[in-house]
Model the fold of this input.
Amino acid sequence: MPLQIVTVPCRSDNYAFLLHDDASGRTALIDAPEAAPITAAAKSRGWGIEEIWITHHHGDHVEGVDALKAEFGSHVSGAAADAHRLPALDRHLRDEDSFEFADHAVHVLDVSGHTVGHIAFHVPDAAAAFTADSLMALGCGRVFEGTFDQMWASLSRLANLPLETIICSGHEYTAANGRFALTIEPDNPDLISRVSAVADARARDEATVPSQLSEELATNPFLRASRPEVKAALGMRNATDAQVFAEIRTRKDNF
Ligand code: ZN
Ligand code: FE
Done:
């Protein structure tokens, strides 16, 4: 397997990801919520951390960056737009930038909404997207800095990635997201079976992240705001997709 992804639980409910290229032995870390568990996950495999890619400025995604950089000499990448509020960057990224990681292409998408300047990383050779607090398992991040329109546009971009894309998101919020999702689509059979699988996984203390884009499209209410059946269920048949998204996001904020 050319690229491996290791999910690293951090803090109370955060996830960081190690992306390792077997051929070169190089490893990239996506987000650094906490240095100690990430250091342990890398060292136990005999890996370094040559690169750190930051998704957004929130403390629960960047707090470990400086310590990890000191330990591993990592090269740090993040959004140019957020350079003033991120740890010191070695590479400044903009929407639609691409760069190479160990001969694999990495595509940068601006997915603002949760924050303005939130980026996601799509790595086609790993069939993976690192989405942090934009698209999440059965959910999406709260819209703190951007607008609902902006968040809907960001989610729509992610929804257009290949169906088999593995969505590596930032938090273990899936069970609570599922309880909310059932209030929007109580009769969606894919959602009902996913919520029960998530409950089983959590009872075994297993992670429900990453997930697959195809299952998010079938079950995640925030990606489904454009569906006629969702609009009808909300009594919003004639509303725009972004208006329906805004309604669902507002309901979730008050759930
Ligand atoms: Zn965040
Ligand atoms: Fe977060």
